[in-house]
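Running this now, will post back.
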Amino acid sequence: MEIIQSIIFGLVQGLTEFLPVSSSAHLILLPRFFHWNDPGLSFDVALHLGTLLAVVSYFWKDLLEIFYIFLQQLGWYNGKQSQKKIDNFSYNNKIVWLLLLATIPGALVGYFLNDLAETSLRNPLILFFTLIIFGGLLYWADKTSSQKRNLKTITFKDTLIIGSAQALALIPGTSRSGATITAGLLLGLSRTAAARFSFLMSMPIIFGAVAFKLPDLLEIGIGSFEIVGVIASAISGYLAIAGLMKFINKVSYKVFFWYRIVLAILVWIILI
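Update: finished.
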């Protein structure tokens, strides 16, 4: 692999990990389209490490709020002043447990069905249909949802539903962010709230994936290709998050539906 390939893989991973267009579809298509070799497992871990750095960098203020809430839950900060400060946060005092609950379905499915997802489920025909079906669901949810709820109204039931949607992302072409944002919209969350909660949910699941495969990366060794891939995916991931958060305040998710249709057509032409 050449450095330019490492950069392109990193840019594509970072952009498509957070936009509701399916990173798996792009990373399956990319080497086929340019006739490149598969970069391998260690490089895949490096790319996910870059996206983890991106989401943590963008939401560091939110993480501080969540950490403060967690400390209060432990009894470290109590009293009227502490509660008044938390009341001004964007999250309710259950946010830590909500995020933990949201991670469980995806972690269980990933642990038991990871091998299946990396072999049988990478069928191009499955990719074709999931791009269209889940893109259509996102379009429908965005068009019909009330979008009146904010992050403070999220319940444990909501979290379990959105977390289960995240588990579906194991199927290539689904899109983790697309599935979770769709579920959030169907539950009445605003576009911004659904996207923000989706990105926060991604942190534990991406961290778990990196930690699970990190020994393989360390065994093979970290070279210049991995380092460049991390940097590229971190920068493009940050820009993707920032761009989407601004974009959805003014425009609907319809553009991503049509993009997924075009991508499905490319899958049909190139792979099927």
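The two ends are 26 Å apart (CA to CA). More later if anyone needs it.
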